Amino acid sequence: MIEDDDRIRLSLVLALEDEGYAARGAATAEEGLALQRSEPADTVLVDLMLPGIDGFECIRQLRRDDDVPIVVVSARDDTHDVVAALEAGADDYVVKPVAIKELSARLRALKRRARAVTADPVPTLTFGDLEISPEAGEVRKRGAAVAVTRTEFQLLCELAEHAGRVLSRQQLLQRVWQYDGGDERLVDVHVGRLRQKIEDDSGSPRHLVTVRGLGYKLQR
Amino acid sequence: MRRAGLRARVTAGFTAGALGLSAVMALVSYQITRQSLLAEREATAVRAAYYDAAIVREGVGAGARPENISAVLRTLDTGEDRRAVLRRGDVWYARQADTGATGAIPAELQQRAAQGRPVVQRVRADGVAALVVAVPLAPDTVYYEIDSLRELEQTLRVLTLVLTLVAAGTGAAGAGLGWYATRYVLRPLTRVADAAQEIAGGRSDARLDPAAEPDLARLSTSFNHMVDELSARLERDRRFAADVSHELRSPLQTLAAAASVLTRRADRLDERSATAAGLVADEVARFQSLVNDLLELARSDQPARRGPVDVAQLARRVCAEHGVPEDVVTPGSYVWRVDRRRIEQLLGNLLDNAAAYGGGATAVRLAFDGDRGRIEVDDEGPGVSAEDKPVIFDRFVRGRSSGARKDGAGTGLGLALVTRHAAAHGGTVQVLDRPGGGARFRVDLPECAP
């Protein structure tokens, strides 16, 4: 957990340990990034307001190294901050003060996603120049592997499973994030990130298309 | 009585002014024309009478016989409009036997003429205006000419009609001008009204262009200044509430986490400590919702982000989360264009309110009519008293029957937020009496058609 407020860090570490997690705190982004390199955690919680390297940059650097799930825990909930953090690569966003039960549910959902990737024995799905192998957890575009995060992959798999059909943002929130009535910006930003990776022109997508007023669908 | 509008009053003023002015002008021109026509006619008549009188004087000497007198009178070229009569002594002579004409000559005129003075007088004979010219020929002989003014009267009647029409036309033109002028003058004010309405509707960036109407530049500038001040103050208030809430969030996070650690170990604490830990946890939770509601309120003046939402499905989920049976919601699917987050919170707050004061919601009714979506949440509690109804949607107002509340939760902001969320959709909230007892909260949301 990267959090500069000592009391918040201490109390959250205590509470998360109560929930059965092994938790460690870092007071700065620099310290957190070093810790993640030396002893990688399964999930990273990041505050946005940090001294030195700020939360957004911290997320970008974490994301550069690997696809570790990142959850933002911030007192800021302006659309601007939420979208910027998600675009930097965060998988989920919770606003302080978050109840420990809720935070715990978020972490469980991320863990389930990590497992789900390797559990389903589904054959490779092909969408034109796109190949999705749920079992291998791989996406290939014209044969070349595309680096996607677990959340992005899960999102792609859900859409691939319902190929040609529209999934609403709420359905995707439910299936990928296990949110009942969550923030639809999560879906929109992740779809945007995914498009940049799998589409030739993310401005006019061919595969992952928006169905106005309804949601998204994946097509050839 | 309602006072007539500025426009109606200005138009009426213009009409009255134009009408009055044209009436005076008409009257004056009528009088002048009439006077000059009459004077001219009188002069002509007098000239003609004297001319005729000279002929008559020659024709009728002192001893002329009555037949000769009539014959002389007949030689006169008087046309149709003039009648010539002669009085000698007490006897009237006329060209024909139409001595009736003598009745038109007033006695007073006869007396004055008899005294040897020529007289001109206007009279009415047989309902027609006429001019009587009396020319004394001899001490006992007076020549009268009665000149009918029928033609002149006709001319004056036509003139009257024309002038009346002109006056009426001028009045109508005045009304038209007034109407047009006020529209022209009021148009910039219409823009002010439009801008004010936009601002009231939440678009705080509406301003007037002072250059558009140089004469109203001061009004535009003051208006803009006022709006600037107002939105700056609103923004300050909003920022303050948001800043305070934000600043409260961090310590609250510590409290929430620490309280959860404490409550998890409640069974290992002694009874007094466990009770205290429970109280802390409950109050932290309440504090948390208060801060969230305050933040929500601080930004609730932002416009609704509408999208298609199945409100029935949403209502069933919110009911489930609030421990209300899902079957209280109108069955079926109601897809409306609304702000999901706001409607979810609106429903949640109404359910919370019903739970706190009405023993729980007993019905969540959805209806769609034309373009308007309606949500009704019923409870079968004591209802809302008449004196509470006007203030129940204000901030931090809690029902007088607060005793009915069991858990002490509730921020006092729930219904205020319901109002704000409805208003963000351009909608309204009302509290009604449920038939059969209890309260009914009705939310109307316009422009919901998907």
Automatic annotation (TrEMBL), chain A:
What region holds the OmpR/PhoB-type domain?
122-220
Q: Which GO terms describe its biological process?
A: regulation of DNA-templated transcription
What are the alphabetically sorted keywords of the record? DNA-binding, Phosphoprotein, Transcription, Transcription regulation, Two-component regulatory system
- Residues modified as 4-aspartylphosphate: D47
Superkingdom per UniProt: Bacteria
- A Pfam family reported for this protein in Swiss-Prot or TrEMBL: Response_reg
Q: Where is the Response regulatory domain?
A: 1-111
SMART domains, alphabetically?
A: REC (SM00448), Trans_reg_C (SM00862)
Summarize which parts of the chain are annotated to bind DNA, as ranges.
Answer: 122-220
Its Gene Ontology cellular component terms are: cytosol; protein-DNA complex
Cite a single GO MF annotation: phosphorelay response regulator activity
Q: Report the transmembrane regions from the record.
A: none
Q: Which InterPro entries match?
A: CheY-like_superfamily (IPR011006), OmpR/PhoB-type_DNA-bd (IPR001867), Sig_transdc_resp-reg_C-effctor (IPR016032), Sig_transdc_resp-reg_receiver (IPR001789), WalR-like (IPR039420), WH-like_DNA-bd_sf (IPR036388)
Protein name, as recorded: DNA-binding response regulator
State the organism named in the record: Spirilliplanes yamanashiensis
UniProtKB/TrEMBL annotation, chain B:
Q: Which CDD domains match?
A: HAMP, HATPase, HisKA
| E.C. number(s) listed in UniProt | 2.7.13.3
Which GO molecular function annotations are given, in alphabetical order? ATP binding; phosphoprotein phosphatase activity; phosphorelay sensor kinase activity
Cofactor dependence is on: Mn(2+); Mg(2+)
**All copies of domain Histidine kinase, residue ranges:** 243-449
Chief localization? membrane
**Subcellular location(s) of the protein:** Cell membrane
Recorded catalytic activity of this chain's protein: ATP + protein L-histidine = ADP + protein N-phospho-L-histidine
Gene Ontology cellular-component annotations = plasma membrane
What keywords are annotated for this sequence in UniProt? ATP-binding, Cell membrane, Hydrolase, Kinase, Magnesium, Manganese, Membrane, Nucleotide-binding, Phosphoprotein, Protein phosphatase, Stress response, Transferase, Transmembrane, Transmembrane helix, Two-component regulatory system, Virulence
Say which enzyme class the record assigns.
Answer: transferase
SUPFAM superfamilies the record matches: ATPase domain of HSP90 chaperone/DNA topoisomerase II/histidine kinase, HAMP domain-like, Homodimeric domain of signal transducing histidine kinase
Native source species: Spirilliplanes yamanashiensis
Membrane spanning stretches: 158-181
- This one is known as Signal transduction histidine-protein kinase/phosphatase MprB
Q: Where is the HAMP domain?
A: 183-235
Regarding the membrane, this protein is recorded as:
Multi-pass membrane protein
